[in-house]
TrEMBL record:
Kinase as UniProt keyword: yes
SUPFAM superfamilies according to UniProt: P-loop containing nucleoside triphosphate hydrolases
GO MF, one annotated term: kinase activity
Upper lineage: Bacteria, Bacillati, Actinomycetota, Actinomycetes, Micromonosporales
Keywords associated with the record: Kinase, Transferase
Name of the protein this chain belongs to: Guanylate kinase
Amino acid sequence: MRGVILYGPPASGKDTVTSALHQLDDRYQQFRRLKVGQGRIAGYRMSSVAELAALRASGSVVWENRRYGSVYVIDAPGLRQQLHEQIPVVHVGQVNAVDAVREAFPDARWTVVALTCPRNVAERRIVERQTGDAAERLRAWDQTERLPTAGLTIDTSEASPGMAAELIDQAVRRGEGTAE
């Protein structure tokens, strides 16, 4: 079982690099986190407060965080299934989330990649998305810590999505980039 954890602040390129990975090899599939709340639904599995409560009660929540007025959840059943069928690409922006995913699935070989870009590049990308919450996303960008345990770090302002995907795929195939 193999998986990729893409770590980075908002607008660092997680969606774009995941798309390029999928184009390179269709086994790479974004892990669609559960989302309880409003806003963008693309890339998420929408859930309810009751379903989230049941997951919490059963101990099936690997990681959850609140942002932009919603709750985002990495659930063990969903990630387990994807690990057996594909190469999940898990998007996170908190250092503790990386550890939580790796600890929940210690038998999987995780390639941990930190995506980064200068703040002004992120700001331009955020504004172009027209989500209406640019200030909040920039605050999240500012609050995102560096990931010192990343096996691979890619500046998406310098590397094209295709180049980033190639680097990640090579690391996955060689078993490199796994954070210890």
